[in-house]
Each structure stands twice: as C-alpha cells, then as structure tokens.
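Researcher: Go.
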Amino acid sequence: MPYDDSVPPTRRARPLLLAAALASLCLTTVAGCGGSPDTTDGAGADASPSATPTVPASPSPSPAEPLPRGPLTGRTVVIDPGHNPRNREHTEEINEKVDIGTGRKECDTTGTSTDAGYPEARFTLDVSHRLRELLQAQGARVLLTHDEDRPFGPCIDERARIGNEAKADAVVSVHADGSAVGNRGFHVILPAAVKGGGADTSKIVKSSADLGARIAGHFVRTTGSAPSNYIGGGTGLDTRNDLGGLNLSTVPKVFVECGNMRDPKDAALLTSASWRQKAAQGMADGIADHLKG
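Model: Structure:
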C-alpha cells in the first residue's frame, strides 16, 4: 500500500504501447498469467506476526567491498521499501503533513498487513533485500531509502529526495496493497504528468512508463501472478497524480504493489519466501531490461 494513498487515485488513460508490451510478455510466459500459492516452503509459519522473513543465505557485498562487474556496472538503482516496521510507534510524527508539490500529505503511514498479522513493512524490507542482492550481482550500485535503521519514515518527500540526490537511473518503491477480499494481482503505479509547487514530472513520465511496463511484463513472467483484477483495466499499470513519492521525483520511478495482503489467496503468495524471491527476480529483470534499453 503506498504510504501516501489517502486520496483516491486519479485514473489516467494508459498508453496503448504499455498495454501491448505487457500483453506480449504475458502471452510468452510459460506459467501463464494466473498465480497460485506456493506451499512448498512453509508459508503458514512465515506468516506469523512475529516472524521476520529471511533473505537469501549468501550475503550481499558490504559497501566497502567492490561490486562484481556486470551488465549494470555504472548504474545506480534506489530501492524504496514502503513504510517502516516502527512507524506504528511514531504515529504523531508520521501524521505530520509534508509538501508534495501539489499539496500536503502525511509524512508516512503504517501500511497494511495480512489477516494473520504479517506487516506490509516487513514484506517490503524482505523483498527489497532480495532485490538489492540480485541487482548488485549484475554490478549495479544499489541504495535503500531505509533499512530499519531509523525510528520511523523516512517521510515521502525525503524518499523522493534520496533518489534524486543519488541521480538514480531507476527508483522502485516496493509495496503490497490492502484492498477487499477477491481483489487479486499486482499493479505498477506510474507518475502522471504533474507540475505545481515543487513537483514537475514532465521529464520522467515517459521513462517511468517504460520502467513500469517492463517490470510488469517480467513480474508476470517470473511470478505467474496475474495483473490486478481491480486496478489498471487488466494491464497491471495505473497512473496517479496524488503520490508524493512520484510527484517529487526527478528520476524515473514507479511503485510496485506486489499483491493484495487482505485477500487470502494473495496473502498465501506474499507470505511465501520462495514467491518473494520470484517477485524480487521479476522486478530485477524489469529494471535491468529498462536500463539496458
């Protein structure tokens, strides 16, 4: 769930090329466009409220160690894990309004959770760690906006600023939605053309749309999950003008809503460690595809 999604999204017409790109990739996937829970890795135990999802066993290189050279050498990717597990302890701070260029919104939110209590903030950190490792293996310089190393936040304006100041080639904000039971599937949120106050997305709308379409196509291919059946008209893509993290970005950026935590079938996927690895792989493949052009 996006951390600044309290205002209903503004729906925009999707460019036909994005839908065509997604449809083409979907048709070529071996698994098809339907998802099914992976029960081979003890997802039920992993869904415990107190469980902290594990990341792949092989450690990522530390900042002091040289990254391996690969196809993404020289590229910078910023990963933005949605929310913060400790936000719920700092409700006063995260409720403070910040400027998003076209208005003011809450600094951050607590995010959603599964019915069993698995928090979105834990999910986003776990997937972000996996994604970081996959991108680093290809030579990319990868930064996280936070790594549970601060009491709350960062606020939505700071999250955007981190990507901007890093001059990132791509920024991906990792989330999971909190919708009604029966609403299933993933969607990628793209920035609308926004100009006002400190917001001007005119230079990133096209590149962000390409990034989002490639992630959506690879996400289908790798996870087997279908595009959202409740947002995006079956394309897996949605354009919004009310998210500060997108409005304030000056570099290509998208949000990925990996599934609906409030639907039992989607929750079974989201709480599966092996499925989270597939989700990270799908995003990594989409990012790499975008950066390679």
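Model: The longest strand covers residues 170-177.
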